[in-house]
C-alpha cells in the first residue's frame, strides 16, 4: 500500500520539524490499514515494532509517502515493512526519512490470538 | 492518486457517524496533495469546490479510500474529481459515500494567479 | 446566526495561512448548528454544498465571523448561505474571505428523509 | 457577544460527558474574542478567572451558547462574565451549565501592562 | 503529584506563546488525575477553580511541571493546589507561570454528591 | 521520570480501546522530556526505538503511568527504558500494558551528532 500525508504546523516540534511522536502514530495507522485490507474481516492488533530508525528530520509542508509491504506471514501474525519518504517544498527528489517493521496478530472476540486465513 | 484514512471516535458526530466537517477537511487535503504532486514546485491554492454530495453516512472504523483524478487543466488552474469509498468493519464491498470536484489555482509569491507549466 | 472562531497556529498550512480544510470543517459545523436551532428536535444531515469560494487567504490570529442565514425551505430540506468575514490582527475593517450555500435534510431514525415542521 | 459550539465525541471524558478541561479552553477563547473586539488594536492577555462553577454535566451533541458580557473596566484591565447554556439533543429548554468571570490586561510589545483606550 | 507536559506549536496562540485555554485544560486534567489516585474507585467531578493566576507567558518548547497537592478534604469534596513551572529552551532555572486551586466532589451513579472514604 | 496521562474518547480506536498510535506518540514525548531534563541545554533527537511490545489493550478512562529510566549513555547518545502501566476505572491494581527502549542522540545546530556532557 502507498499512502500520503501532509505535514502542517500542528504536527511540528518546537524546532520547526516534524514531531517524532506524530510519525510513529501515522506509521501505526498506515500499517494497520494495510494489514486490515490484506485480511478482510479479521481484527488485527499491533503487537510490536522493530528496527525503528529516524534517518532524517522532516520539514513543514513535506508530503510524506508511506510505503507498506507485507514481509512475513505466520499462523496468526503478519509483519509489514514501512518506509517513509518525504517530498519537501522546493525539493526535486524524495528522501527516505524513516523505516521500521510492524507486526500484527489476529485476535478473536475475547482478544486471544487466532489463525489467519490461508 | 489513491489515499486511505481510518475513521476513529475522534472523527465522529454525536450520532456516532463520521462528522461531515472532517470529510470536507480530508477531501481538501487529499486533492491538494494530488495537485501539488502533479505540478511540483508550484504553490497551489484551493479556489472552489462544486457538486459536493454526501451520499451515505460513514461508520466508526471505516477505511476511507480517496480516489483523486485530474479532470481539467486551464492556464493557471486545474480541477480534480474526488470520490470517497468506505470499507466498513464487517462489510464485504466498498460503498461510495461522497463526491465532489475541487479547483486549484497556481499563485506566485504575492498570492496572484500565474501560469501552470505545460 | 452569527458565530466567531479564532485562528491559531494549529489551524495553519505550511505557508502560514489558514488551512482550507479547517475552514470547510467550521462552515459545516456552523451551518449545522443554525439549522438545528431553526428546527429543534429534528435530526439534520448535510447533503450538499454549492458555490464554495475561497476569496482571500486568512492570517494567523484572525477572528472569523460566520454569518449563516436560511435561504430556502423545502418539504424535507433547508438551504443556508454562509459568509465568512475575517478581522485580522492590526486591521481596521473586516474582509470577506469565504462563502458557500449548505443544504441539510431532515432524517428519521432509519436515516430516511422526512418532512420538516411547518 | 453570543457564541455557539457543538459538543462531539472528541470533547468527552470517559463517562461520556463533556470533559471539563475543554469547557475551560472554550471559555478562555470566547472571552478573549469578546475583549479583543471591544478593544480593537489592543493585545489582551488573560490574567485571571474567578468564581468558576460547573453546575451541570453536559451531554454529547449539546449546542453550547457562550454569553459573554463586559462587567468592569479599569485603567489597563477589563473583566467579563461568561455564562454557558446547553441545548441538549431532545431537550426543549436550555440549562445553565457553567459560569465564571475572566479578567484581561492590555499589554504593550514588551508584555507590560498599558492603558486601555477610553 | 508531579506531572510534565511539552509545549509544541499546536498549543500556541498567534503571538507564539502558549494559548491560555490549553493551560486551563491541562490543569483540570492533572488535578483530576491526582484526585482520582487519592480516592481510588471514586468518581470525582470538577466543581470549581479559584484564584487562577497566569503570571508569565510560556515559550514554545517549554517543559511544564504541574505540581499538584491536596490542600483540604471535606465530607464529599477535596481541594488541590496546582502550581505550574516552566523550563524553557536555553533557560537555567524554572519559573512559575501559573497557579490555581481546584475543587472536586465525589458523585454517585446519579451524579449526586456522596461521602469520600475516610 | 514518572509521568501520567488520562485516556479519553479522542484517543480510542473503533473497538473502544486506546489506539496504538497514540501510545507511541506519548512514549516518544515522555522519553524525550526525560532525556532533555537529564541533559539540560542539549538538543536531543529520537534516533530509534527497540523491543516495542504492546502487552495489553487499554480501556477508556485509564490513567497511564509512564516510567522512564536511563539505561545506557554513550559519547553522543543515551538510551531510556519506558514502561507503561495502566490504572483502569474500577481496577484495584495497575497492569503493565507496554514497554520499549528509546535512543536519543545529541545534535548541534547543523543537526550533526555531538558529545554529551560528562
Describe the protein in words.
6 copies of one chain form a homohexamer. With 118 residues, chain A is of the alpha+beta class. Chain A is built from 1 helix and 5 strands, in the order βαββββ. Chain A has a 5-stranded antiparallel beta sheet with strand order 1-3-4-5-2, covered by helices on one side. In chain A, a hairpin with a 3-residue loop joins β3 and β4. The longest helix of chain A has 19 residues. Chain A is elongated, with a radius of gyration of 16 Å. The model of chain A has no long low-confidence stretch (mean pLDDT 94). The interface between A and B is medium-sized, with 17 and 17 residues. β2 of chain A pairs antiparallel with β2 of chain F.
Defining traits:
1 helix; homohexamer; alpha+beta; 16% helix; five-stranded antiparallel β-sheet; 118 residues
> If strands are numbered along the chain, what order do they take across the biggest sheet of chain A?
1-3-4-5-2
The coarse overall form of chain A would be elongated
- The total count of helices of chain A amounts to 1
Radius of gyration of chain A: 16 Å
Mean pLDDT of chain A: 94
Give the total of beta strands of chain A: 5
Roughly how many Å apart are the termini of chain A? 20 Å
What oligomeric assembly is this protein in?
Answer: homohexamer
Uncertain runs of chain A are: none
Amino acid at each position: 500500500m502507498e499512502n500520503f500525508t501532509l505535514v502542517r504546523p500542528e504536527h511540528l516540534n518546537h524546532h520547526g520539524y516534524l514531531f517524532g511522536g506524530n510519525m510513529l502514530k501515522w506509521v501505526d495507522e498506515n500499517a494497520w490499514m494495510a494489514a486490515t485490507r490484506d485480511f478482510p474481516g479479521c481484527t488485527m492488533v499491533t503487537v510490536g515494532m522493530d528496527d525503528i530508525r529516524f534517518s532524517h528530520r522532516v520539514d513543514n509542508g513535506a508530503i510524506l509517502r508511506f510505503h507498506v509491504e507485507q514481509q512475513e506471514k505466520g499462523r496468526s501474525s503478519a509483519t509489514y515493512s514501512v518506509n517513509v519518504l518525504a517530498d519537501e517544498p522546493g525539493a526535486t527528489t524524495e528522501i527516505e526519512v524513516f523505516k521500521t517493521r510492524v507486526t500484527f496478530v489476529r485476535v478473536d472476540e475475547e482478544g486471544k490470538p487466532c489463525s489467519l486465513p490461508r
